[in-house]
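FIELD: query
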Amino acid sequence: MKQWILFIVKIVIGIAIVAWILMQVDQTKFANYYLTMQARDLFFVILLSLISLWIQFMRWKYLLRQYSDSFEQHDLIPSFFAGFTFRLMIPGGHAELSKVFLLPGRKRGKIMAFGMERIFQTFLKIVLSLAFLPVFFPDYLWLCIGIILIVFAGYVLFPRIPILRDYAEKETPYHQTFFYTTVYSLGVYAVMVFQYHILIVEQYQISLLSTAFTVIYLWSAGVVPISISGLGIREGLAVYFFKFYGVPAAYALATSLFLFVLNAIIPALIGIIYIYRKRENFKEIRNSLQTSREILRSLRSDRYGNSKKSNQQ
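FIELD: result
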C-alpha cells in the first residue's frame, strides 16, 4: 500500500512540475512547436528512436548472456518492451525488474543482469553529469573531480561485495561487462543527443557539442527518484540548460515532452501487448520474489555463521 501511495505521489509530482513549467512559458510558442514540425525532421528523429531501441535491446541481450544461461531468444523482445511498461506502471523497486518474469527459467542470473544494467548506467550518468558540470559552473570543478574519484572507488570496490558473488548464477568478467555495457549506453546517449539537436537546430543555432553538454542531464533525469521516469525533472532541466544557448523555454519543454513520448511512452504501449500475451508468466512473481528473499537470507546467515566460527577458532 505504501508503495502505491509513493507511486501516485511521484506521478502527481511529475505532472505538477510539467504543468507549472507550462504555465511559465509562452504557450503559443509551445503549441506552434508541434504545428510547425518538419516531416523530414520527424522522419530522422523516429529513425533514431528505432536505433536507440535496437541498442538498448542489444545491451539487455548482452547482459542476459553474461549473467544467465536459462532463457530463450524468442522471449527477449517481450521482456525488453515490458520493461518500458513496468517502469511507468508499477511502484517501488519492483518496477522494471518485473520484466525478468517474462523470461522462463531460473531468475537469479536475470535479476543480476537487470541489477548490473541499472548500476552501470547510473555510474555512467553520474560520472558524465559531474564531468560536464564545470562547463556551466566552473567554480565546482574540484568538487566534481572529488566526487568522480569517490564514484570510481565505488566501481572498483563493488565487485568485492560477497553477496554478489554468492548470488551470481555464473562467473562473469566484471570489467569486460562494464566496458561493453558502457559502449551500448553511450550509443543510447549519442542517439538522444542527435534527436535533440535535429529538433532544436531547425529553429535555433546551437552546436552539437553544446547539445551534448545539455542532453547528459536530460538523459540522467531518471536518477533523481522523485517522479516516474524523470518526468518533470527532465523538462525542468531542459528549460534551464538550453537557456544558456538562447533556446526559449517553450521550445525546450516541447522538445523534451515530444521525445519522452517517442522514446518511452510508445515502447511502453508496445510492452502492454506483450504483457497481456505473457500474462501467465506473472503467476510466479510472488513465488520467485519470495525465493530470492530466502536465498539472500540464507546467504547472509551462512556468511554470518562462517564468520562466527572463524572468530571462535
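FIELD: remark
The first helix runs from residue 2 to 24.
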